[in-house]
Design brief:
Order of helices and strands: HHHHHEEE
Number of helices: 5
Helix content: 40-55%
Largest sheet: 3 strands, antiparallel
Strand order of the largest sheet: 1-2-3
Strand content: 5-15%
Length: 148
Amino acid sequence: MKRLPIWFERAENLAIAAAVVTGFVHLHFSWWWLLVFFLAFDVSMAGYLIGNRAGAVCYNLAHAYVGPALLLLSYALTGTRWCAFAGLLWAFHVAADRVLGYGLKFVTSFQDTHLGKIGEQPSPAAAPPGLPGLQFCPAHHGEAPSAA
């Protein structure tokens, strides 16, 4: 199975970001809160002060859709508005980061992501080895991703 093209993943996340903004406005939250809290989730990069592995784990935990999904599920089940507010803020941040090319991190370097190396044009040969889709660590336990 081949990976989806990077442009498809970015387009998908652009649609998620648009849906989040729509939901945010529909719930009568002021849209500018999305901008105010946008960088708050990047505090997770502090893990890189410890090392690449800790940084990747912290960053990936804060930049996966699991957290926002749980908050939004909690809102759907209980009607607790702060869960919707926080979940939508978080989902918007994740989606916008992915649109900008900041994917989930590999343990090799902050620049090595599931969307390719930050700052380089994506190419099929640059995809890391292993299973397609979301990968949190390289398949070779800390070794640098190799070109196919």
